[in-house]
Amino acid sequence: MAIEVNGKTVETDEEDYLVNLSDWTKEIAEVLAKQDELELTEQHWEIITYLRDYYEEYQIAPAVRVLTKAIGKKFGKDKGNSKYLYSLFPYGPGKQACRFAGLPKPTGCI
Amino acid sequence: MVKVKFETPEVRPYPVIPILKPDVMKGNGPFVAKPPMQEALGYPGELVDNWQEVAIDKMGDLLGKYRSLRVYLDSCVKCGACTDKCHYMQGTQDPKNMPVARQDLLRQVYRRYFTLPGKLFPKLVGAKDLTKDVLDDWYNYYHQCSQCRRCSVYCPYGIDTADISMAAREILDTVGKGQKYCNEIIGKVFKIGNNLGLPEPALRDTLEGIEEDIKDETDIDVRLPLDVEGADILLITPSADFFAEPHVDGLIGYAKVFHQAGVSWTISSHASEAANFGLFIGSYENMRQVALRIREAAIDLKVKRIVFGECGHAWRVAYSFLNTLAGPFDFLDQRYPIPQHICEFTYDLIKQGKLQFDKSKNDDRRMTFHDSCNVARASRMGDIPGGQFMIPREIIKATCNHFYDMPSDTIHDETYCCGGGGGLLTDDLMELRVKGALPRMEALKHVVETNGVTHMAAICAICKTQFSKTLPFYGFQMDQIISLHQLVGDALILEANDN
Quick check: is A53 in a domain? Predict the structure, then answer.
């Protein structure tokens, strides 16, 4: 599987996650979001950027609680909760936002 | 995102046997494991050329190893008692999801190659050659069984469909057609120590964050120690407890109980997973490798006791197989159960009067309890028969003022699977998961309407995730499912201690 971005072909897996993390660009995130009928706003980017930073440090996406707390601290208390994150990423911040951020899909009983 | 269009089944006023829709769930099954995922578990990367021969050899091997499998394949008399007992059959209406029909997919091949009548007169005895179509049916329909064993409760011969589905999955793995979800996860346990692939630094950071949260909320220092050598208790819990909601609230509950009990405890980064997906794929060897990590962690950290967190099949493996897989545990303190369930631990303290609760803290919750299949039908808690049903309910009653059970044919050993067990908790099986949740949703709706129930507690990471995803399909809210130990944590009166 693959997606086309700016004339370049980028490989994705059967669940539409990027195969190579290093392929990621902002344009790719936008294309991936469009597949889910979402338009990325500044609020989405706040989350996506945080996810990528965390991943770079820990080699995994943050736990839901870690994410909500960090977002709350950084961008205001009203944003530090699951409800807000689900309003941005209806399929769940863990899976959907990770996909847009170019990170691998979290696995396990989650 | 991969999206499949399907209709959520309608909640029936009275659960009746559904009208059958042959082949409605025929398909390719869940995503197939990639070669590296297969190879990490000791299986061929992809379907081998001589798959038929390999599959039949493997079946012979399993029949030789497990007498039970041969008995199950031989003894079915087609009485029909199991036909409507499966949640997937009820939700999907596909006749191949009748437990007997699902068993027959393997049984027909067994008869053809391992019984005299089947070898001589296959058509007369329902015996069938192992063709590619049959193999594909195995892959598809044995991944529509959550190995919950409800059907076995009603079978007059006690035929265990889960054992048959596990055997089928092991044969599939052996010919090179494994399931991506399970096998990728087992590989992560081998490599990193848990299903999530959560490395030690991330785990440490996460636990520290939870300690801060508890401090903010209660002003008391409750620790969640990691890799502390010499601690008394090693907590083995599903990694979802570190990562997801509502799981993490259960973890906070365990931490508060340990704190209040004044015991020293630790989590291990080496064995940071209770789940053992080796069970789901029917692989003794993989199950043993996963279980051995717990033994290694217990020895390395010099603990005296092992306590398991809220994870259904982990408790089955722990309670029923741990000693065989990774024993003997003669180095642990023999005065305590080996291993012990967190519910047993908490319940003992409640009985001894060592935990005090402010039940009014849970007054906004009117509770019911979902018995997780593997706890209910494959294990026990405490020292009396049925302890696995009684103890969680007694904990709820000690911490909440309002508790109501769902209808009697949907709880205890007749409990329905959540719809996501047995290695099926993956997005590519969402249609199956939503449909399989139907009987539980009907039972929940009953107590919501009759008793004003607002929340359902569970003691299994899979159940919690499955319900938080499927509740909205049935008009409920995703946060109506909670961890049992969240109730404990919310109502427990904490005191500062010196630990």
Answer: yes
Q: Are B146 and B417 in contact (CB under 8 A)?
A: yes
Q: Which of A60, A82, A99 sits opposite B202 (nearest CB)?
A: A60
pLDDT value for B2: 57
A48 and A88 belong to one structural domain: yes
B301 near B234, Cβ under 8 Å? Answer: yes
d(CA A43, CA A75): 9
pTM of this prediction exceeds 0.90: yes
For residue B35, whether the previous peptide bond is cis, meaning omega lies within 30 degrees of 0, is: no
Domain that holds residue A31: 2-35
Q: Using a CB-CB distance cutoff of 8 angstroms, which residues of chain B are in contact with residue A82? A: 245
Chain-chain contact of B2 with A15 (C-beta, under 8 angstroms)? yes
Q: What are B189-235's pLDDT values in tens digits? A: 999 999 999 999 999 999 999 999 999 999 999 999 999 999 999 99
pLDDT tens, B262-276? 999 999 999 999 999
Strands B305-308 and B233-236: parallel
- For domain B35-178, is the CATH number 1.10.3470? no
Distance from CA of A92 to the nearest CA of B (A): 10
Question: Looking at residue B1, what is its pLDDT?
Answer: 59
For the question of residue A109 being annotated catalytic, the response is yes
Tokens read off for B283: 């692989």
In terms of phi and psi (left: phi > 0; alpha: psi -120 to 50; beta: otherwise), the region of A77 is alpha
pLDDT of residue B5: 84
Query: What is the pLDDT of chain A when averaged over all its residues?
Result: 94
Both tokens of residue A82?
């699951």
Q: Is residue A105 part of a domain?
A: no
Average pLDDT, chain B: 97
User: CA angle A77-A80-A85, nearest 5°?
Assistant: 135
Assess if residue A106 is contained within a domain. Answer: no
CB-CB neighbors (< 8 A) of A59 in chain B: 199, 202
- B205 near A CB under 8 A: yes
Residue B498: predicted pLDDT = 59
- Chain A, nearest residue to B424 by Cα: A109
Residues within 8 A of B (CB atoms), A 12-31 only? 14-16
- Asked if A61 and A14 sit in the same domain, the reply is no
Q: What is the ipTM of this complex?
A: 0.95
Read off the pLDDT of each residue in B332-354 and give the average, rounded to a whole number.
98
Pair (A50, A95) in one structural domain: yes
Cβ-based neighbour number of residue B382 at 10 Å: 17
Please indicate if any CB of chain B lies within 8 Å of the CB of A80.
no
